[in-house]
Amino acid sequence: MDPRCVDRTTKYQDMIAQIRENFSARTLDGRIQIDVSTHAEMDPIAAFFPMYCPEPRATFFRLPTLRPSMIWVLGEKSYLRLDEVREGIKICGHGIGGSGGDSQGKVKEAVIPKGSHLFPFENVAEAAEISSA
Length: 133
What we know:
The chain is of the alpha+beta class. The protein folds into 2 domains: about 10-50, no CATH class; about 65-130, no CATH class. It contains 5 helices and 4 strands, in the order H-E-E-H-E-H-E-H-H. A two-stranded antiparallel sheet has the order 1-2. A two-stranded parallel sheet has the order 3-4. Helix 3 links the parallel strand 3 (about 70-75) and strand 4. The longest helix is centred in the middle third of the chain and has 10 residues, at about 80-90.
């Protein structure tokens, strides 16, 4: 591997690439009040966080209905808790309209050793090889 291709993405760049601010959802008395004109996609359950990302929570609830085959490619050094990600993998495709999931061989997992959360940018060739297989 070319030494110039080591991870140069800071944790701050990673954070900004994935989340939105939510500094105004909490009122002065501590209640949650979402301004839907600026944060229409915010889930009220997660509104107490000062930063948020709407897609993961919405996607998680749709995993049981996933129909196509799927490979979950994970970075071994991701900051995400892989045991929690694997809970999503277990339910993938097992709902109404789903593919049958891992019991039908439709859902698989691959781990990129030493890969962080942004492995597609760090280990391009390895990520592509796994995905294309």
